Amino acid sequence: MHSHYSLRYGILSPEEVLSHYLEGGFSYALLSDVNNTSSSLDFVRMAQQTEMKAVLGVDFRNGATRKYLAIARNNEGFREINMHLSEYLMEKKEFPDRAPELPNCYVVYPFREQRIELKENEFIQLEIRDLTRYHIALTASEKPDYLQPDKTLALPTMSFRNKRDFNTHRLLRAIDNNTLLSKLPKVQEASLEDRYHPREIVEAAYADYPELLQRFDSLIAECCFDFEFGTDKPHKNQSTYTGDHDEDEALIRKLCAEGLHYRYPEPSEQILSRLEKELEIISEKKFTSYFLINWDITSYARSKGYFYVGRGSGANSVVAYLLRITDVDPIELDLYFERFINLYRQNPPDFDIDFSWTDREDITRYIFNRFDNVALLGAYNTFQYRAVVRELGKVFGLPKHEIDRLAAGGLRMQELDELSRLVIRYSERIHGFPNSISIHAAGILITEHDVRNYVATFLPPKGYPTTQFDMVIAEDAGLYKFDILSQRGLGKIKETLDIVRYNQPEVPPIDIHDMKRFKEDERIKELLRTANAIGCFYVESPAMRMLMRKLLVDDYLGLVAASSVIRPGVARSGMMREYILRTRHPEKREEAHPVMLDIMPETYGIMVYQEDVIKVAHYFAGLTLGEADVLRRGMSGKFRSRAEFDKAKQKFFSNCREKGHPDDVSAEIWRQIESFAGYAFAKGHSASYAVESYQSLFLKAYYPLEYMVATINNFGGFYRTELYIHEARMHGAEIQEPCVNRGQAVSVIFGKIIVLGFGLVKSLEHKTIERFLIDRKENGPFSTMEEFVDRVPVSIEQLSLLIRCNAFRFTRKDKKELLWNAHLLLGHIPKKNPVKTLFRSSPRSYSLPELYTAPYEDAFDQMELFGFPLCDPFELLNDLIEDTVDARDLEKHNGKIVSVAGYLTTAKLTSTAKKQRMFFGTFTDRNGDWLDTVHFPDIADKYPFRGRGIYIVRGKVIEEFGCYSVEANYMEKCSVIEDPRYAESKAFEKRLIQQKQDRQRSSRWG
Q: pTM for this one?
């Protein structure tokens, strides 16, 4: 039977497949998805919770054409199926007409009127619809040679429940074939007869030939698939690092002893006791190899000079700290050991290891070369509702404007025609189905044996074998994933150090890991207090900067807490505001429940970190640590429907009653747990983020220009490149356009002059940049544009881009003159590769008329080429802005209605409790200061944001915990001047010149 993991073919979930077998009176359940074993292990897990016997197979097809069905007789047979399937998926080739040797499988071929020489384990499948042809052939006076009664068995294909299911299947097939439903070939779809039948109907259908069904039943009876689920079965993962358990134990203790001298020169008894406790539990839970493999990966990274951050619940471990997997001291932060690991916990701790986006690929390559059985973890992309509406609209042949209208939503069914109603109805049915399989963002499996014992693999463009199942099924199967992630923040830190070395060579080497110094640094504390953290990892977003100001953060522990408080769940539970109140007003802490305050004194009785769920469940509700961990995992959403989670939830409330907690208090505590636990960080995770934030803040405090250049080169962070250029200018930088003699593909700095990189120029090809950079390195700088053309093969289109971005300004010629010369030199003839000559001929001279360049022409060129102007955007307004209040003066107008003017940086969309859209706007005013606005639903609908630009916002100045913003009641986008490159009016040009002079008198950009 097929599930919806027969991608774009099946329509039933694995749970529905199993329930149909149960309700249909079968003693077994056969799952045989098309070219897929994604849900096979999960199907077995679910079947083990019933009386059903799970049987696994694969329906091998080319497109919709079945070649053969393979059914695993045992675990070895399932491995053979996965090996065969993987070979063809990895090499992206079609399956042959005959199956290979699969000795531990039964192979079943479709009933066809052609002779097949069958092996002992091969059979012919007889569908119910084949019975008439079979009867005619069997009763013929001369039996055809393709008839093999002793090798034929009854096996009806079951894919659908009813006609509606079949229609859904046909729509999926049309989507898969990118064709109109009316033009879908019959060979690309199943038969309507491939529907689910109860056992009694199947027996009745084959009543004339009961031996066919008996033969299939006897085969199923011999099938036996045995699999142990649960992460307490670590033998499926690489069980040893050195090849011997005792040697592993000796190695991890040796490494911890070495790490003690590095991390704790004078370790206390508390540290030594904690270390011994951890080592004992790691050994008992058989996680030693897991720790050593992570140590191996991070050791390689250090040997290559790669920066990394180890985070996740593993940061709660002293062993991880000593092995340098993480840089978080769990003793200093009093990290909750039981969140990291306990004897009741089945799954290992999480080690999310972040590398620079430039280094992760090499780390992945190293892991695949270093260990024997490695695979990337798969992930499923599901059909999203609006995307399905668009796909089905095309399948039904609707015009684009009608599809757009349906996808926009908000329509009433009674207002739609029949075809549109079908699109909506079936979109709701298909929504959430698996659509395609891709790669998990970070997960890598390192197994003891070939991963194809458990699942088939495919080969995505990344080029590494990738599992067909996802992280949830892998975890159920007891397979640990190693999370190897990439982020640009680490790339910024690494590149800043390189830039400082060449721009300020007199600066002594920087120890970026000197956290003790950073925690005491007054400049960093000032950046935290003022939230002047643009470009800094995790602390630069408007919401985080505002939270830091509200919490008066100026130290490491405060930042650790803020990193978790900012998570959506804490805000949703209402505890973010309560935490701010208790931080700023100590008398409010007395309002906390005494038990909660006793459990979490550091956070004033408020759940802030993910492990607080375990603490509250264990100490407040009396759950065991194992039950508490089930509750924590259940809150992630992956296990919310699982029986063990429901059991833990029920026990939470029953225990609370036994302990005498009032029902309303227990219900409120549960609401807080439920609202935030799936989103909150583990404290160690937040601490790891805070370490990287401190490293970024240090570089921003002492080397702001170099840090901004690195931020630009690593494609920014929360904001667009334009803002980081603005931030560099606010720190005293002179921003220059790219230059073919001084510039590079990335931005570079010379003292305080930042020359933007050619990579920022839209449509400028990489090969063009590479060519002239190589030539410049070999033959020196260019003296004229003509020499550039003589030395570098370049098209007129690419040369024009270089001229327009002012890359030839060293020639001191006007861009218009250069463009004329470029066209005279190249015209529309492709430039051939230059030929080196001993003597260069002088370029021909041309007499050009006087060419006039109006003010701000460069700004409009820059907007086209970079996406933003390099001048003050306020200079480009059509009218001068008057009678507005600057951001720095809002405090003087608290509670009053004012008008403000700001250049839009970002607008955050969010929803009210009633699911209405509202926005938080972030602008920079004419002084470059931050300006925050709030747009409630009625105002957001009436005065929408209309893209980047300068806006006038009118509203009431409001204050919350010392942060001022404007609650908008009106907003208007300001108009900009006419593009001077196409204007002809002299009066217009004079007005531009006058406006430029007026604005530059007080501009921060002057």
A: 0.83
Nearest to 212 by CA among 223, 201, 203: 203
Indicate the pLDDT class of residue 1006, thresholds 50, 70 and 90. Answer: very low
Q: Are 703 and 719 in contact (CB under 8 A)?
A: no
Q: How far apart are CA 6 and CA 355, in angstroms?
A: 36
Instruction: Identify the three-state secondary structure at position 590.
Output: helix
DSSP 8-state symbol, 179: S
pLDDT at 360 over 70: yes
Considering only CA atoms, which of 572, 559, 341, 378 is closest in space to residue 481?
Answer: 378
DSSP codes joined into one string, 137-159: HHHSSS--TT--GGGEEE-----
| Partners of residue 65 on adjacent β-strands | 62
Q: Is the pLDDT of residue 693 over 70?
A: yes
pLDDT at 833: 63
pLDDT digits (tens, 9 = 90+) for 887-931: 999 999 999 999 999 999 999 998 887 889 999 999 999 999 999
In sequence order, what are the residues at sequence separation of 6 or more whose Cβ sits closer than 8 angstroms to the Cβ of residue 180? 174, 394, 395, 396, 397
Beta bridge pairs of residue 34: 59
Q: Are 974 and 950 in contact (CB under 8 A)?
A: yes
**Kind and range of the H or E run holding 992:** helix 986-1000
**Cβ–Cβ under 8 Å, residues 169 and 159:** yes
How many Cβ atoms are within 10 Å of 171's Cβ, its own excluded? Answer: 26
Angle, in degrees to the nearest 10, between helices 488-503 and 683-702: 30
Measured CA to CA, the distance from residue 731 to residue 704 in angstroms comes to 7
The residue ranking higher by pLDDT, 113 or 864, is 864
HSE, CB side, 13 Å, CA atoms: give it for residue 780. Answer: 3
CA neighbours closer than 13 Å in the CB half-sphere of residue 166: 13
Q: 393-432 pLDDT, tens per residue?
A: 999 999 999 999 898 887 788 778 889 999 999 999 999 9
Give the pair of three-digit tokens for residue 543: 């919401």
pLDDT at position 464 is 95
Distance CA 932, CA 921 (A): 6
Is 619:599 a contact under the CB 8 Å cutoff? yes
* DSSP tag of 877: B
CA distance 325 to 1004: 45
Residue 731, SS3?
A: coil
